[in-house]
Amino acid sequence: MGLITGLLTLPLAPVRGVGWVLDQVMAEADRQRRDPGPILAELAQLEQQLLAGEISEEEFDRREDELLDQFDHQE
């Protein structure tokens, strides 16, 4: 970008900055959406609740199916 072009497009600098920030936010949101860690942690917690007798087999199966569906839709 030349000096004249840089000076002429200087008023657009805030717009370019906002665009860059939005790109960064979208990239981070996509990364978090694809991260299986929270779903796997919730599955482990669900299994602990079942083993501790805090939830029934039926409740476990229902919630496990929901979590596995979420996991499948991530990819």
Query: How many distinct folded domains?
Result: 1
Number of helices: 4
Radius of gyration: 23 Å
Q: Characterize the biggest β-sheet.
A: none
- Kindly report the average pLDDT value: 86
* H/E series: HHHH
Given as residue ranges, the uncertain stretches (5+ residues, pLDDT < 50) are: none
- The number of E-state strands comes to 0
Instruction: Give the termini distance in whole angstroms.
Output: 40 Å
What fraction of residues sit in β-strands?
A: under 5%
What is the percent of helical residues?
over 70%
Q: Outline, from the CA principal axes? A: rod-shaped
Q: State the secondary-structure class.
A: mainly alpha
Kindly list the characteristics that best describe this protein:
75 residues, mainly alpha, 0% strand, Gas vesicle protein GvpG, GvpG
